[in-house]
């Protein structure tokens, strides 16, 4: 019998201490991210005893033709030594090859140091998170962000009667209607990744309160034309999961982005950075995220391991 169990929203209280104790800034270490995408990536978890410690192991696999993907095992006691991590993963993998991903630079370095020349550890550019200085997104200063200011000013001039409102549970149904309309306009039926994101958005809204998400929307004449969802993450970082706007309203994306960041800055004065997650390899999304001039790209690494990996 497979000891791993499917991730459900009720697991948040159990897993959060491990995820938060990891100290890692990658978006995949937020429970909300794991849950939102668990329907697509079939995310499972289990607690494995190692000595006097209980380690959280998170496993996913999009389809049966690919190896299981594991995140680096997590402990409430701090970083897990690579020898221990691989021993646990070898135990749960059933001696089948597997992928070890979402690795931070320090974890990649630990593996290379502990097992020299044994693994090929590579950066996964499609998984790099985009990290922005909150001041840059708030003020949009400088020539490099001139086009963003132009679009934002066009929105403010053309739609001075807009409303920027928090999303309550009573608004969720309307947000989902707007999201589905956006999907049709953008041609989701021809784009598998977009369709998958729509599923993730629905999961996020269905568990909106339990996940502790915050959302805002822009309304014009009573209709939602843009919305965004996020949550406080690390002490100095806020994580934005979703941002959508109808493309026919020039500057709507820039408006929902800046208004939300201003809200974050006001409510969470310790936040210095906004993590807007990765681009999943989508060229259009990559261009859009790079155009906001990220302060840094949070690198992540992956390696394929064929047991036995430990001498």
Keywords summarizing the entry:
single chain, 311 residues, alpha+beta, Aminopeptidase, 2 domains, 7-stranded mixed β-sheet
Shape: elongated
Number of domains: 2
CATH topology of the largest domain: Aminopeptidase
CATH architecture descriptor of the largest domain: 3-Layer(aba) Sandwich
Whole-angstrom Rg: 21 Å
Counted by DSSP, the helix tally is 12
Low-confidence stretches: none
The SSE order reads EHHHEEEHEHEEHHEHHHEEEHEHEE
Blueprint of the fold:
Blueprint: E1 5-6, H1 12-21, H2 31-36, H3 38-41, E2 44-50, E3 53-60, E4 69-71, H4 82-93, E5 98-103, H5 105-114, E6 122-123, E7 129-133, H6 134-139, H7 146-158, E8 163-166, H8 172-186, H9 192-206, H10 208-211, E9 214-220, E10 223-232, E11 237-245, H11 252-267, E12 273-275, H12 283-291, E13 296-298, E14 301-305
Parallel strand pairs: 4-5, 11-12
Antiparallel strand pairs: 1-2, 2-3, 3-4, 5-14, 6-14, 7-12, 7-13, 8-9, 9-10, 10-11
Helix pairs in contact: 7-11, 8-9
Can you describe this structure?
This protein has helices spanning 12-21, 31-36, 38-41, 82-93, 105-114, 134-139, 146-158, 172-186, 192-206, 208-211, 252-267, 283-291; strands at 5-6, 44-50, 53-60, 69-71, 98-103, 122-123, 129-133, 163-166, 214-220, 223-232, 237-245, 273-275, 296-298, 301-305. It is an alpha+beta fold and 311 residues long. The chain has two domains: 5-127 and 300-305, Gcn5-related N-acetyltransferase (GNAT) (Aminopeptidase), CATH 3.40.630.30; 129-277, Aminopeptidase (3-Layer(aba) Sandwich). The chain has a seven-stranded mixed sheet with strand order 1-2-3-4-5-14-6. A seven-stranded mixed sheet has the order 8-9-10-11-12-7-13, with helices on both faces. Helix 7 packs across helix 11 and helix 8 (172-186) packs antiparallel against helix 9 (192-206). The longest helix has 16 residues, at 252-267. The chain is elongated and about 65 Å long.
